[in-house]
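User: LysR family transcriptional regulator. Structure?
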Amino acid sequence: MGMNDYQALLQEMAAFVRVADSGSFSSAARQLGTTPSAVSKQISRLEKAMGVRLLERTTRKLRLSESGVEACRRCRQMVEAARSVMDVGGQFCSEPQGLLRVSVPKAVGHRVLHPHIPAFLERYPKLDVQLLLDDGHVDLIGGNIDLAIRITDRPPPGLAGRPLMHVDHVVCASPDYLARRGAPSHPRDLARHDCIYLGEDVNDNRWKFMRGDEATMVTVRGRYAANHSGIRLDAALKGIGVGSLPGFAAREALADGRLVQLLPDWTFLASYYGTAWMLYSPSRFPSPKLRVFIDHLLDCLKGCAGAAGIEVG
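Assistant: Predicted structure:
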């Protein structure tokens, strides 16, 4: 295969990555601004040129074949290399500019990042920021994401990362609720309380706690569940029950006495407990817009995490 043949298949390779990430021709077509049949033809051309089947098609879904897994890994490298080429111009700009796409969990985006965005925009007038609030998995390359913030103790391999802040989780209630129902002295006492929990998963009402070497789990119940920390905060303030909240969401209400933290000598091991990591594609020359945004966040949230860069994976 000659050089011209390789070049003719670059779009097909990029389309293949989109299909692999989205799991369907129709979803990839929406992202690429084309039709599912056109994407299907691109994949067929790539398979014919390579002489292997990249996707195993069933009536319900697509999945990568063994050869497709390896081909997708290399096509990702090509897509990332193309993004790096486009960033070259930014290396020589006198000031950062362009669009910065940041994926962040909903509560962190609302209560931690958003308050610091206005000052960033004022400081860098040629930069635009798009916050994508999403608690799920995100693909940086396929989703064209510059920076993802995720709470995890095991950052995914193949990405560069820096710790942003520690995220704890607390259980708390209003003074009015505690006057009526009393305060628990041990996590197992929560089984007798009305609890406000996440409610996204069948295990969300199984609260885990740790104190030193002692670990315990209690199945809680309540009449209200909500997958938004702001709603759980408001419900706790209204005395509906004992709320489970990220520490940053409850901090102001705890400081002014509208809420009282319960079981402070226990660590509540919730899904939002751990380290918030800033994750991005590894590169010898990160784009100026990414560098200044990371520095801005670290400066605004200094004291919450170490500032040393860490390569993960």
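The radius of gyration is 24 Å. Confidence is low (pLDDT under 50) at residues 305-313.
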